[in-house]
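Support request, please re-run this one:
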Amino acid sequence: MSLLALEGVGKRYRDGARERIALREVSLALEAGELAAVWGLRRSGRSTLLRVAAGIEQPDEGVVRFDGRDLAKHGEELLGSAIGYCQKRLRGEEGRGVLGHVMVGLLVRGISASEARRRAHTALERTGAAGCSAMGLTELDGAEAIRVAVARTLALEPRLLVIDEPTQGVDLMARDEILLLLRGLADDGVTVLMSADESTALSGADRAFSLSDGELRGTPARELAPVVQLRPADRRTA
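Re-run finished. Output below.
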C-alpha cells in the first residue's frame, strides 16, 4: 500500500463567470522515503495539487488516501501530525523568535514545554538552522527562513512533508543545500512532495512530474527514475 495515493483527482474553481479547471484526473502514488517534485508554470495547478495532497482542500472528483485512509474523512486528524504542510511564510508579527516559532505547533497540541523545546532544537539541528534558534524571525535571510519553516513542520514528526516551492527566494548558492536537505529527509524515511517553478529545482528527486492545464505527466514508478545526485553520494546536509 502506498503512503500517499491520489486517484482520479479533479479540482475546479470559479473565476468570475468562468470555471477554471486546476486538476484533471490526476493519479499519483508515493511510497515511504520518496522525494517527488512537481514542476509547473504559474497557475498550472501545482500549489492546488499540494494542498489537495495534504488534505487542506478536498477534491471535486476522485479520492486522496494517506496510508489507506480517505483524507476527505480523516484529513483533519492527520494534517499537522502524520502529514506536515510546510508554511514558508514566517509571521514576525507574532512576536516570537525562531525557537518559539518552531515550538508553537507542538504546544498547541498539548506537548509539554520541555518536550516541545527538545523537539524544536532537534528539528533545527536537522535542518541546519541550529545557529538561528536565538534569532528573531525578521533577522533571517531567505535560506534560513526556509530551514526554520521546515524545522517547524519537522518537529511535528510527520511521515509526509509537503512543501510548495522550497527554493523560491533563495539565492543560487543556497538552493542546492535546501534541495540536499529535502533529499536527506527522504533518505531518512520521510516522504517529501514538493513543487518547483524551474527545472533546476527538480534535481535529487526520485521522480519529477510536470503539470500543465491540470494534467500531470511524469515517470509512473520510482524504480524507473533513479535519483539525480546534486553532489557526490557521500555528502549530506546536517
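The chain is about 30% helix and 25% strand. The beta strands are 4-15, 18-30, 35-39, 61-66, 69-70, 83-86, 160-163, 191-196, 207-212, 215-218.
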